[in-house]
C-alpha cells in the first residue's frame, strides 16, 4: 500500500518563517496597522486572508485584505533569490523517497514564490505532488489541504504522516486523522505544538533525519 509523507514548506523545510513575519508586519504597517511581530509570528502558517483576520480581528475593514496580501507578496518576493533550505531538508526528502514514501508538499505558495522555494529545496526529482491551499475550500487549520494532499497519493490515513512547524499544521493534520509530527525550526514552542496534536517533536529536518529509524515513519513502515 502507498505511504504518504506530507510536508509543510515554510519553516519546516525552508528557513523562511521570519522572512514572512517581517513581510507581513511591514505590509500591515503600510496599511496603517501596528501589530506586534510576535502576534504575526504565531499567525504564520494561516492563509493570507485568515492571517489578516487573525491578527486584526473580525472587526477589521476587509476591503484592505487584498491590498495587505499583495503587499506581503511583493515584500517577500525581494527575498526569493536568497531563500534557503533548512539543514537536512533535501536529504530528508530523498531518504524518505528511497524508503518508499510518496513525497507531497502542502503549501499556499504559488507562482514565483513556489518556484523560489523549490529552487531552495533542490529536490524536485523526489517530489511527487504539490498540493496548493488555493485549491481547497478552507486553509489550515481546516483539514482540507491535508486531505487533498493525501488523496493525491492514494494512501490511507493510517499510512500518512504530515510534518509541520506551526500550530495550524498540527491541528489540520490531527483533524484529518493522519500522524502529525512537529519541528521547532519555525520558532513555535514544543508545548504549543504538542497541545495542537503533534505526536513527535524534532528540532528540525536534520534532527529527524538522524532519528528516522526510531520515528513514526519507521513504525508505519513496519506495519505496512
Automatic annotation (TrEMBL):
Keyword Hydrolase tagged: yes
Matches recorded under InterPro entries: HAD-like_hydrolase_sf, HAD-like_sf, HAD-SF_hydro_IA, HAD_sf, PGP-like_dom2
One Pfam family this sequence matches: Hydrolase
Keyword Hydrolase on entry: yes
Superkingdom classification of source: Bacteria
GO molecular function: hydrolase activity
Alphabetic keyword roster: Hydrolase
Name of this protein: HAD family hydrolase
Organism encoding this protein: Streptomyces smyrnaeus
